[in-house]
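Lab meeting notes turned into a lecture example. A postdoc, R.K., suggested we walk through two folding results consecutively so the class can see how the record format repeats. The first protein's sequence and structure tokens come next.
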Amino acid sequence: MIDACEQAPAWIRGIAPYVPGKPAQELAREMGMDEAGIVKLASNENPLGPSPKALVAMRAALEDITRYPDGNGFDLKQALMARYGVGMGQIVLGNGSNDVLELVARTFLAPGVSAVYSKHAFAVYPLSVQSVGATHIETPAKNFGHDLAAMAGAIREDTRIVFIANPNNPTGTFLSGADLLGFLRAVPRRVIVVLDEAYTEYLAQEDRYDSIPWLAEFPNLVITRTFSKAYGLAGLRVGFALAHPDVADLMNRVRQPFNVNSIAQAGAVACLGDDEYLARSRDINAQGMQRMVEGVTALGLDHIPSRGNFFCVKVGAAPQVYADLLRQGVIVRPVGAYAMPEWLRVSIGLSAENERFLSALAAVVPASARHR
């Protein structure tokens, strides 16, 4: 390493970079495949593509891309205010919800303080914590999900943030609204609780809860959401946080002024007005999840019940199965980095994509992984 790099803080040099899902273009180049024939079920993307209303709005926004975007995101904030009943000063916009999570860390963490998150939780939490030199506190998981009692017990005097994903990525596990509310009431008000609800739009009716009114009771609550999943705008990178105005104000002080581009803002506003698209996304996902679970169960494989648009399946020698699936033109996500070396995470696709995955999996999964 060159001398200049040695001057970077040790916590920066110790970061293991986030590894995204393999793009279809990359696999096509590596193996000489036709990209059109590749099925990508690796990154929890919406297989429907974007809302037609969003496409119209984004095309119109292209006419003005010579101008900088609205740094305050007025139109998008107005749409979010109408949807969620919050004030303008409670909203923080981000370049995807990952950006918002990093803003929380940059605002409230520093060397000498700590943050709590669960084992098997979203990799961006430890990355955000380490990037500012704060201390990690990883709590044991409970059935591959958050153990709220363990997380509450892990809070120290120097703890500033607790991260919770619901549903959790990559495992898809779920915490009820009642359990979350009980946790919030047990956490000291000096500790920020980040409730990452990136997949909340996929929840079935019987699982849904409304966290937005909790903001009035818990000024230390930050709710993060994204347009990358159920709203189908992953390529545009637009997310947001809802928080107490004092918390949002601090986060907006460290936010880059043009972190959400004009096209993304226009598409997000249009998405919020397309409930038909959102309902179709949810229905397609529910049908696909049912078929995927039936398929892997028929193969004698274990899976983790999921409330997201993805699920984890236990295949034994996961790196080998992953590589074998790639050779069949099917991209999924190994989750060894999440301390789950025998598991693959699989996004729910369209019907034909799901069937392609199940067929490929049947051809490559070792007999030792099956419990029939």
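The second example is placed directly after the first for contrast:
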Amino acid sequence: MNIGITASPRLSEKHLAELKKLGKVTIFLPTKDPEELYNYCKDQDILVVWNRFKSEIIPRLKKCKLMVVWATGYDYIDIKATTKMGIAVANVPSYSTASVAEHVFTFILSLAKTLPEAHASVKSGNWRQLDFRGIEIKDKTLGIIGCGEIETEVAKLGKAFGMKILVYTKHPENHREWKCVSFETLLKESDFITLHVPADKDTYHLINAKTLSLMKKTAFLVNTCRGSVIDEAALYEALKSKQIGGAALDVFSPEPPSPDNPLFKLDNILFTPHTAFYTHEAIERLNDMCIENVKAFLAGKPKNIVNKEALNGRIS
């Protein structure tokens, strides 16, 4: 049994030892070259991945039976192609719920209290106390777009801070504990808006010039899901013109962003390098669950498979 690990998965020695009990483990160097990626993967029965697997590579992977995605999101895998090839794709749900929710509130509190600007000022020797008047988040309205486990945790934290919670979701019947409203109402009434939707054709540029124009001039936008959900050019114009109060991004499109991204020239936006999920506790859970996905598959009891049709074998 050949098990290949590609790109960024950071498995500890403990987790690598567990995998080595199951087969021959090979760790491949990161690559953006499709042909080199194919050569890495062609002889592997199981892959632990955090790569973009395009449709031209997958049909050539004749031996692979399982891809374990080192993440919850799997939008960078061509699911149609893997399913046709009989390659099951397993993800790792729910491992970073607390980490991402806490990151959202790190952004919210930093924006509300002008922390980055105040920190930079003090560090540079400028004690400009009166320049950094923040706002309280108590009694402010938190708008949550999407409603899964992370969003529910964000809502709980917001409630603990005394915020009013609004939710926009396609399945309001599943979230009766929160006030579910229309997309337009959420945009108009929220003081803070946080995005938690998958990257697909329905959410591409969900936040654009039109939707940004509906937001309060004092509102803040937070994105920890996928960069493609925001039209960055429209966001730049909205921030530059002070059409909205500010923003905080953990994700970009593409990643990494270009060094000359115009958003970097603005003062009313915060950035982190797609690290909302990246805590010691979350990564330990992620690695544990990756190993469990491999073990379950080999035991004939596959779990967390996102394309169950692939379990029936290759579709000719």
